[in-house]
UniProtKB/TrEMBL annotation:
UniProt protein name: 3-hydroxyisobutyrate dehydrogenase, mitochondrial
Domain 6-phosphogluconate dehydrogenase NADP-binding: 1-99
Record organism: Pongo abelii (Sumatran orangutan)
Biological process according to GO: L-valine catabolic process
EC numbers on record: 1.1.1.31
Keyword Oxidoreductase tagged: yes
InterPro entries, A to Z: 6-PGluconate_DH-like_C_sf, 6PGD_dom2, 6PGDH_NADP-bd, HIBADH, HIBADH-like_NADP-bd, NAD(P)-bd_dom_sf
Amino acid sequence: MLPTSINAIEAYSGANGILKKVKKGSLLIDSSTIDPAVSKELAKEVEKMGAVFMDAPVSGGVGAARSGNLTFMVGGVEDEFAAAQELLGCMGSNVVYCGAVGTGQAAKICNNMLLAISMIGTAEAMNLGIRLGLDPKLLAKILNMSSGRCWSSDTYNPVPGVMDGVPSANNYQGGFGTTLMAKDLGLAQDSATSTKSPILLGSLAHQIYRMMCAKGYSKKDFSSVFQFLREEETF
C-alpha cells in the first residue's frame, strides 16, 4: 500500500522491483490508491511474468485498520478473487469484487471524492452553527439524528471536543493526511476529465485541499478542513 502511482511503478518496475524476481503463479495484491490506468499497466507487466495482479484499495481509516474492519475494493480476474478474499479477509470485514483490474481503484476514487465533499460540508455546517450560537456537541447530536447525518459527522467529526478518539481530538494528528486526500481528488479530477464527467463539487474540494496543503495543513488529518475554514478570512 503505497502513497502514489509513481511509488507503485517503482516498487514493481524499478531496478530492484517486484517484477525482477516474481515467481510464476504468484498473486500480487496492490492496496495503493493510484490511477486506474497505472493499475492496468502493472497488471499487463505482471501477466507477462506468469503472475496475477489485483488492485485492492481500502477504506475505513486507521480505526478500521486497527480493528481489522477495513473495506477492500478488488479489481482483477474473477477466478482469482477467492484467493485474494481469503487473505484480505484477515484485515477487512468487507471484501468486495468490483470487476476487472482498475475497477477497485475506480470505486475508491469515487468514495474518497464523496468523503472529501461530505467532510467539507460537515465542517461548514458545524462552523456556521457554532457562529450562530449553537453548542457543537448539541449540533452534532442533532445532525446525527437528522437527514444531514454522514460518516464525517457521526464517526469522524472534524470539530475538536465533539468526539474522542478521532484526529480532531488530537490536534488533527494521525488519521488520513490532507496531502493524500488532495492526491486522491487529483485522481478523481483526472478520471473525470478522461470520461467527460462533471464533478463540480469534486473539483472545488480538490482546490480546497490543495490550498490547505499550501498553507501548512499538509501533514494534518483531512478533517482539519474545519480549522482551515475557521482561520480562512477570505471565504
